[in-house]
Amino acid sequence: GGANGAIRFQPELSHGHNAGLQVALALLKPMKAKYPDVSHADLFQMASAAAIEAAGGPKIDMQYGRKDVTDEQGCAQDGLLPAPMHGSSATAADHIRKVFNRMGFNDQEIVVLSGAHTLGRVRKDRSGLGVDETKYTKDGPGLKGGTSWTPDWLNFNNSYFTELKARRDADLIVMDTDACI
To answer: Which residues form the Plant heme peroxidase family profile domain (predicted)?
Structure first.
């Protein structure tokens, strides 16, 4: 359904692929309270654009006016979000196609979107993936720990693809869905 603020409702927020987003939503809650006329959808998109720019990525021109869904009825219904792949017999490529084809993404767009793993990390307590900390995440910034896809996980660059291809560092996570890229 696009950027409609649905992530703040169940089943979107509680889905395994979205584990940990409660932390991000909590960070945005004071902004929403201060600017109640800004839709959640616009606020989430604005935060994403600001994060990309702060990490050295391009400035993303914003268009405002997104409408929020008002309740869980506007969210994806159970069954539309595929279950996490862990323990599944599906191949990783089949899995990410199932997830993203339903949103209209083709293979090329899925690869581009996967490049977002250049930024950030996984946390064992949120997604069940990774380790508590690595040589790249033990000192933070912010909340320390987790496992990153790249050594420089706060900089917007092409390192996800170069690290993925090299597969030379055991302190970096490579999920099955990354490896199939």
So the answer is: 38-168
| CATH architecture assignment, domain 6-74 | Orthogonal Bundle (1.10)
- pLDDT digit string (tens) for 116-154? 999 999 988 888 889 999 999 998 777 889 999 999 999
* DSSP type of residue 147: E
For residue 95, give both structure tokens: 């899995």
Average pLDDT, the chain: 86
Q: Where are the domains of the chain?
A: 6-74, 92-180
The amino acid sitting at 70 is: T
Going by C-alpha positions, the residue among 34, 36, 28, 38 that lies closest to residue 7 is 28
Q: Is the backbone of residue 142 left (phi > 0), alpha (psi -120 to 50) or beta? A: left
Q: How far apart are CA 63 and CA 40, in angstroms?
A: 14
For domain 92-180, give the CATH number.
Answer: 1.10.420.10
φ, ψ for residue 161, nearest 5 deg: -70, -40
Render the burial of 125-144: b for 16+ CB within 10 Å, e for the rest: ebbebbeebbebbeeeeeee
